[in-house]
Amino acid sequence: MRLAHLKASALALPHTTVVKQWGECLVFKVAGKMFLLLALDGETLDGVIFKCTPDEFDDLTDLDGIIQAPYCAKRHWVRVGDLAALPPAELDRRIRRSYDLVVAKLTKKLRAQLGL
Q: How many secondary structure helices (H) and strands (E) does the chain include?
């Protein structure tokens, strides 16, 4: 249920695509740039990785069940291993924030082309 909700929420964001990468991971992108990774163990959600600011990183990693995302830029990506660490609405908000952070780094020209 939670996996289906997260997939639907991410795909509802403008110009979002999803690819299966790195084994069993669903990688959500905007303009080819990753903003969300859902780690799967078969059909079970094993973790959620999203972008954040360094200030948000400190607050998030202070919570049990959230760590720095392996293989991602230090202090800019977190992994939620225990989904109970964030209420569903907060996780949705963080995913939207991750999307917005990635969109903000796109060129002005590309944002204009995409209508973002």
A: 4, 6
